């Protein structure tokens, strides 16, 4: 349904359109000036009703703006660059496993590496969130990994099916039953890890140091719990939403990047040249390496422009809000279609649907209005984890491109690609991605 609505909005000349979805009026926004108003207004911090289907109504993504401000301020210290960089050794280890697993895919003649990549990203985010190594890439805790995967699929089905959004209907459907079963597996794992973490802190008082910059998210939120700043429910919600929202968005984006490189071998080789010059033929990636991977970063950003983490961003203003050409009444559900904001030919040029990483070279990107590029949202209620995601994706590209070459099963053009809109954008032709070992 959302895919069809976006097609309708895309074909309209006005950058602000309205439609009723069920009994509720939705306004669709695609102009960067309107986006700026919405994402910077203190009266548009509340999310639309859609987000409550991602988890529950008390997590960071969904809570009202005044609650979100408090929680976000408490969590921000964990997502600074110095803290994120302490995870680089762990990322190197986990991505080395990914490199080995891709080779196993090749040797077993299994071209689809989606599950391999997803397992790696879930493994990493669980390690940095829970603070324990679940070894998911090695086949450990398979019930947990399957539950997370099933949960993401069931959320996507509920997100865009109106009858599934009715709670009393949803819980009696096969989708609802699998959703709740998967969520219980996650809850039980979280409770187990929290209990173990608190027990370890009691046995090792030095673990309670609040200024430990290498602490995991679990360490940070347990500190908040002990200081009386978080409730037990806040703790569980925060840990679980970071896993659920974080791993799939990064893994899907990573697969999209691989496909863009496969379709543009000249870009892939240019990335490899920079990687070999900065990082060498093998060995671990360092923090100093990360900041020098300028072209690799443009490739990631251009992929996120074409296929942003969230295809839409929903806001529900608490007061009437003035956009460029009209006033939107309070309580109306406003949908920012970031997928179309990123492809506006008046901003990005007539080739806005083409993959051109050089758009993000400083001399070019400086000409782009700020709110024309919002892959992780923007303004005061933006995503908390872009530094984490960028760091991980750079290390993956370094380690994987040094060993493997990506190509497609048939020659694909950008115009051949079709998208399915779920909670993330998924390219239907991703199953045509192929990988082979590089000749050393």
UniProtKB/TrEMBL annotation:
Keyword set includes Oxidoreductase: yes
Keywords assigned: Endoplasmic reticulum, Heme, Iron, Membrane, Metal-binding, Microsome, Monooxygenase, Oxidoreductase
Subcellular location(s) of the protein: Endoplasmic reticulum membrane; Microsome membrane
Binding site for heme: 383
Membrane topology note: Peripheral membrane protein
Residues annotated as signal peptide: none
Domain of life of the source: Eukaryota
Cofactor needs: heme
GO molecular-function terms, A-Z: heme binding; iron ion binding; monooxygenase activity; oxidoreductase activity, acting on paired donors, with incorporation or reduction of molecular oxygen
Cellular component GO terms held in the UniProt record: endoplasmic reticulum membrane
Classification via InterPro entries: Cyt_P450 (IPR001128), Cyt_P450_E_grp-I (IPR002401), Cyt_P450_sf (IPR036396), Cytochrome_P450_Monoox (IPR050196)
Family: Belongs to the cytochrome P450 family.
Function per UniProt: May be involved in the metabolism of insect hormones and in the breakdown of synthetic insecticides.
Protein name: Uncharacterized protein
């Amino acid at each position: 349904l959302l895919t069809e609505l976006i097609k309708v909005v895309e074909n309209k000349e006005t950058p602000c359109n309205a439609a009723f979805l069920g009994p509720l009026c939705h306004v669709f926004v695609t102009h960067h000036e309107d986006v700026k108003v919405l994402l910077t207004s203190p009266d548009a911090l509340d999310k639309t009703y859609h987000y409550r289907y991602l988890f529950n109504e008390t997590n960071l993504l969904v809570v009202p703006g005044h609650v979100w401000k408090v929680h976000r301020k408490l969590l921000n210290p964990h997502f600074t660059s110095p803290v994120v960089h302490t995870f680089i050794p762990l990322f190197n280890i986990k991505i080395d496993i990914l490199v080995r697993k891709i080779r196993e895919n090749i040797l077993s003649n299994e071209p689809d590496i989606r599950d391999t990549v997803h397992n790696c990203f879930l493994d990493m985010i669980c390690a940095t969130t829970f603070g324990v190594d679940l070894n998911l890439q090695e086949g450990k805790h398979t019930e947990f990994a399957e539950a997370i995967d099933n949960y993401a699929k069931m959320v996507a089905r509920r997100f865009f099916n109106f009858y599934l959004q009715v709670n009393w209907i949803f819980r009696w459907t096969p989708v609802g039953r699998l959703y709740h079963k998967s969520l219980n597996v996650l809850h039980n794992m979280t409770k187990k890890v929290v209990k173990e973490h608190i027990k370890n802190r009691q046995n090792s008082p030095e673990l309670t140091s609040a200024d430990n910059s290498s602490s995991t998210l679990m360490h940070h939120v347990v500190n908040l719990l002990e200081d009386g700043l978080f409730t037990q429910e806040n703790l569980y919600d925060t840990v679980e939403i970071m896993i659920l929202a974080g791993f799939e968005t990064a893994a899907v984006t990573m697969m999209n990047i691989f496909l863009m490189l496969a379709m543009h071998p000249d870009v892939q080789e240019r990335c490899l040249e920079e990687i070999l010059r900065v990082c060498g033929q093998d060995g671990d990636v360092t923090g100093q390496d990360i900041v020098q991977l300028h072209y690799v970063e443009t490739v990631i950003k251009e992929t996120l422009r074409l296929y942003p983490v969230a295809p839409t961003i929903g806001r529900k203003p608490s007061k009437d809000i003035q956009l460029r050409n009209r006033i939107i009444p309070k309580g109306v559900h406003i949908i920012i279609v970031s997928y179309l904001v990123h492809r506006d030919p008046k901003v990005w040029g007539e080739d806005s649907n083409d993959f051109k990483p050089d758009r993000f070279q400083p001399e070019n990107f400086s000409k782009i209005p700020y709110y024309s590029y919002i892959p992780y949202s923007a303004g005061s209620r933006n995503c908390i984890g872009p530094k984490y995601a960028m760091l991980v994706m750079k290390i993956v590209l370094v380690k994987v491109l040094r060993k493997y070459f990506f190509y497609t099963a048939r020659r694909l053009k950008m115009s051949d690609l079709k998208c399915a809109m779920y909670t993330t954008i998924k390219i239907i032709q991703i199953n045509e991605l192929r990988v082979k070992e590089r000749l050393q």
